[in-house]
Design a protein that fits this description.
The protein is mostly beta strands and 121 residues long. It has a single domain, classed as Jelly Rolls (Sandwich), CATH 2.60.120.10. The strands form three sheets. Strands 2, 3, 5, 8 and 10 form a five-stranded antiparallel β-sheet that branches. Strands 7-6-9 form a three-stranded antiparallel β-sheet, with no helix packed on it. A hairpin with a 5-residue loop joins β6 and β7. The radius of gyration is 13 Å and the shape is globular. The two termini are 23 Å apart.
């Protein structure tokens, strides 16, 4: 599935620049227990990823994301004050809490997917 803006992703225009789950460095965030994989996007590249991922957006309430870099590198930024950023390379992941504004900037050789996790039913 490769929609322009997947349903789990919402623009962050009305969101505050911080979130209660924003403590710690981006690399320290882990998926909480009790979540199950709901779906995974198709593989994205710099050219194929939806434009909405390049600007601030957020994963919807109750949904956690995990960016998984398959090749190349992706710059990932949480829109906190000050912004927190890291560069992920092949094999690395970034967990994305619900309602936390962020954006990505893939390198030309990047390939990546986004997993969406929700509470087990």
């Amino acid at each position: 599935m490769t929609p322009a803006d997947p349903p789990e992703i919402e623009p962050a225009a009305e969101m505050p620049t911080s979130h209660p789950s924003s403590a710690g460095a981006p690399a320290d965030i882990e998926l909480p227990d009790g979540l199950e994989l709901a779906r995974t996007t198709d593989e994205f590249t710099d050219e194929s990823m939806p434009a909405g991922l390049r600007r601030a957006h957020r994963v919807g309430p109750g949904t956690w994301g995990r960016l998984r870099v398959l090749a190349g590198s992706v710059d990932f930024t949480f829109e906190t004050e000050p912004p927190t950023a890291r560069t992920l390379t092949a094999g690395e992941t970034q967990v994305i809490p619900p309602d936390r504004p962020h954006f990505v900037a893939p390198a030309p050789d990047a390939r990546f997917v986004v997993e969406f996790h929700r509470l087990s039913s």
